[in-house]
Give the backbone structure.
Amino acid sequence: MSDFPLFPEQASTIAWQVDALYGLLLALTLFFIVLVFGLVIVFSLKYRRKSEDEQPEQIHGSIPLELAWTIIPLFMAIGVFTVGADVFFRIERAPADPLEVYVVGKQWMWKAQHESGKREINTLHVPVGQPVRLTLTSEDVLHDFFIPAFRVKKDVIPGRYTTMWFEASKVGEYHLFCAEYCGTQHSYMVGKVYAMEPGDYHDWLLGGPMASESMEESGARQFAQLGCESCHMDNSSGRGPTLVGIYDQTRKLSTGREVVADIDYIRESILHPRAKIVDGYDAIMPVFDGQINEQSLNQIVAYIKSLSESE
Amino acid sequence: MSAVANAVENGHSNGKTYLNETYGIKSWLFTLDHKRIGILYLITLAAFFAAGGVFASLVRIELATPQGDVFEAETYNKLFTMHGVVMIFFFLIPSIPAVLGNFLLPLQLGARDVAFPKLNLISYYLYTAGGVVALTAIIAGGVDTGWTFYTPYSTTYSNSFVALALIGVFINGFSSILTGVNFIVTIHKMRAPGLTWFRLPLFIWAQYATSLIQVLGTPVIAITILLVVFERLFQIGIFNPTLGGDPVLMQHLFWFYSHPAVYIMILPGFGVISEVIACFSRRRIFGYSFVAFSSLAIAILGFLVWGHHMFVAGQSTYAGMVFSFLTFLVAVPSAIKIFNWAFTLYKGSVLLDSPMLYVLGFIGLFTIGGLTGLFLATLGLDVHMHDTYFVVAHFHYVMVGGMVMAFLAGVHFWWPKMTGKMYSETAARVGVFLIFSGFNLTFLPQFVLGYMGMPRRYHTYPEEWQALNVMSTAGASVLGIGFTLTIIYLLWSAIGGKRAEANPFQAKGLEWENAGSPPIAHNFVDIPIVVEEAYAYGKKHDEAQIESPEPAKEEEVV
Amino acid sequence: MSDAAHSLGRAHHFETAEQQYESATLGMWAFIVQEILFFGGLFGAYVVYRNLYIDAFSAASHQLDISLGAFNTGILIGSSLTMALAVRCAQKGEKNTIIGWLVATIILGFGFLGVKYVEYSHKWHDNLVPGSSFVWEKPGYLDVAGGQVKIFFSLYFVMTGMHALHMVIGVGIMLWLIAKIRRNEINEHYFTPIEISGLYWHFVDIVWIFLFPLLYLIGRHT
C-alpha cells in the first residue's frame, strides 16, 4: 500500500485534521454515490419498459420526500461547513510566538531567511515541534507556497505580505511546490522542506555559510545606513514618529483615519511614505520605492517588529 | 384531457422542411431561421471542440512521463491555456443554449422564431468573429497565461498574445449576452396561447435561468477583460502592484463572472436531462415545480459564491467563511434535482436507449463532480487542495461528465428532429461506453494525484506519480476515440442515414407533437393552443390513480 | 402568413403588433440591465480604490474641471429632454418635428463629446493620461503617490471613455432613426424603434449622472 499511497505523509500538527475532513467528505460522497447510483440503477432496471405502448402510472411528486431531501442535505451541508470552518480557523490563526521565517518568491525560485540571518534558496529548514510562521511576498507575479505534507498553502502576492503557519510533527524531507501559475518555469519552482529535530535545526542555523548577522541586526544596520534613525528616534523628538512599540498598534493618520501598524503598513510606509502620514507629522520622508529589495525590506521589517518586543 | 388542439403536420404541402426550403450557402450564412442558426452553431462548436480536444491530447501526452520531455515549458503552458480558453469560452458557454436552445425554444414555446431573429444571427457572427480573433492569437504563437489570465503575469510579464486572445473572448462575450437577452424576451413574450409558466417544459425553465446569468454576469468579465487589455497595452496600472494596483481585485472581478459562468454551462444541461428522462420513462418529472425553482435558486445563489476560488488568495478569513457557507447552500438545489430525476424513474417505463444512457451517465458523474465540489467548498480542505489536480478532476467531472454528456444526450434525443435522420443505435451505445469508461479512467486518478499534492499546470512532476498519470493519459485516449466515433456516426447519419419517423421516441412536447422532423421553415402550420401540463404522458388525468411513493397528500403540478 | 391587418413594420414571427412592441421594450430593458452590470464593474473598482487611496483620489479629482463637467451634465440632461420630446412627437406622428428633436439631441450629443474632447486634450497636455507619458508633479500634492493618482485617471478615462463610446453609438442610432422616418418606415402607427432608442439614450444619461458626482464632485473631499 505504501507503493500506492492515497495521501501524503502527515507531517504537521494540522495534517491529521485535514485528513479527517477528507475522510468525512469521502464517507459522505460514498454514501450519496451508493444511494443515487443505487436508486437509479435499481429503478431503471426494475421498471424497464416491457412493451412499446406501456403506459406507466403518473406520479406528480411528494412533498414529504422533497422536504426530506432538501432539509437533510442542508443540515449535512451546514455540519460539514462548520467542521471545515473550524479547521480553517486553526490553519489561519498562528499561535503566539512562532518562529519567524521570511520568504520571498520570484520567478522561479524561493528565497528564505530565518531570524538568525541564515538564508536558503529553494529549501526550508524547520524544527519539529515548534510553530513556524512564514511571512511571504513576491518580487514579481503571483506564486503560492505549498507544502503537501503539512497540508498548508498560501498565495504569495507582489506588493504585500501574506502569512501562513504550521508546526512540523515528523522529521523528514517533504515536497515544496509553487501552486499558482507563474510563467514558463512554474513547474520547476519546487524545493524541499526539511523538518529536523530542534537540536539539528540549531546546528544547521549555526553551521555552513551563514549570514554574519541576524535579520534584526541586518535590519538595524540598514536602518542606520539608509538614514532612517536620523528622523525616527527612540523618543518622539524626531522629525518622524518613533517606531518603538508601534507594531500592531492603532495609528491615527493626518487625514483622521485610523489604521493598524501591521507588516503591510510598515512596508507601505517605507516604499510609499506619503500614502499614510501619522497625525502631527509632515510629509517629508523620502520615497524608498525601487531602492530596497524584498529581502532587505524583510530585514528592516523584522527589526522594526523587534522594537515592539517586550524584554 | 384532449391533446393539443392542432394536428401534426409533417412537412408543408410542398414537402419542404427548413433544411431544403431554400438552397445555397448564402441562404445558410444569412439565415434568420433559428433552426438553421442552431445548426450553424453546432458545426462551429464541433470544430472548436475538436481543437480543444487536440490541445488536451497534447497535454496528456506530455504528462505521461514525469519529465518535461515532449514540449518546451513555454509550449506546454500555451497548450493548457488554449485548451481552457477554447473549451470554456468557445465550446462550453455557448454549447447547449446556442445549439439546442436556439433550435428548440420557439418550437417548445409554440412560436415561429425567437423574439429577435436578426439579433440571433448577429450573436452567431459575434461568436465566430471572437473565435477567429482567438484563433489568430493561437496561430500567431499562442497565449500562456492560463485561461484565468491572473495579473500581473498576464499584464506585465507574459510574452504571448494576451491582448489579442482576450479581445477574441470579449467579442464572444457579446454573443452570450445577446443570446441571453433574446431568450429572456422569447420566453416571456412568445409563448403559445395556453402555455402558462407552469406548463413550460423544464428545458425552458433551465434556459431562462441560464439567460439571466448570461445577461447579468457576462458584462463583468467584459469590463475585466477590457481593463486587463488596457493595462497590458497602455500600462494604466490598475492591477499592477508596482503602481499601487491590486492583483487580488482582478481575481474578484474575474470570478464574479466566472463562477456564475459554470452555472451557464450546467443549467441547460439540467434542462436536457429533464426532457430526456421524462420521455424515456414516459413520466412527468417528479416534483416539477421543485425542479423549476431549483434552477432559479442556482442562478441567484451562483452569484454569491465567487470567493470560494480565493480562499488562499489573501482574502480575509471571514470572507472565506461567508463564501464557503453560501457554496454549501448552492449545492442543495442540485441535490434536489438529482433526487427528483431518480424518482421520475420510479414506477416509470424506462427505455435504455442511447440518449437515456447519456442521462444516466450524467446523473452518476455529476453526482461525483458535485460532491467533490463540496470537498473544495470545505475551507479546511481547500487550503490543501486548491490549485491541485483535485480541482482539475472536480471541474472535469462536472463539465465533461456533466455538461458534455448532457449535451450529447440532447443532441442524440433531438437528432431526428433536427436532421430528419436516425443514427445507428449500436454505434451510439459503443460511443456511450467508450466515453463513460474513458472519462472515468482519465479523471478518477486525478483526484488521488491532487490530494497527494500534484499542483495544476505542471509540466513535470515527481516520479512517484507517474503510474496515476499514465492511467489518466490512457483514459484520455479512450475518451478521444469515443468522441471521434460519436462525431463520425452522427455525421454519417446526417449525410446518408435512414430517415427518422416524425416522433421516434413517442415524446410529448410541442416540438415533437406539433412540428415535423425536421420542421417546416415556419415551425407550425398553425400556432398550437396548449391545454395540458408538460410531459402529459400516460393515462388520462381524471382516470389516473395519482399516488406518491409515501402515504402523503397528492401534489398536483399544473 | 396571410394577415390582412399586417401593420407597418410588424415582423412576421410575431402574432400581434402588441407582442412585438412588448418584446422590443423588454429586450431593451434586459440589454440595459446588462449595461448596468458592465459599468457596475468599473464603479466597483472605483469604490475599492477610492477607499484605499483617498488622498490620491482627492488630489487627482481636483485636476478635473468641475465647470466643464457641470456644463456637460446640463447638456446631457437637455438632450434627454429633446429625446423625450421626439418620442412624444412620434406618438402624434409629426414627421418633421420628430426629426427636429432628434437633430437637437444629436447636436447636444456632439456638444457633450466636444467638451469631452477639450477635457481630454487638457489632460494630455498636463501629462495625466495613463501610459508612458504619465507624470505626476503637481505642486501642493507631493504627499501623494503618483501610482495611486494614475489609477484614478485610468478609471476616469475608461469610465468616461466607455460612456462616450455609448454616446457615439447613440448618435449613430439617432441618425439611423432619422433615415427610417424619412423612408416612412416609422410613423404614428409604428414608432417602437424611437421609444426603445429613447430608453437607451436615457440610460446613457443616467450613467453620466452617476459618473459626474463620483469622479468630479465627491472625489474632491477626503
User: Anything to note?
Assistant: Residues 266 and 403 of chain B are 6 Å apart (CA to CA).
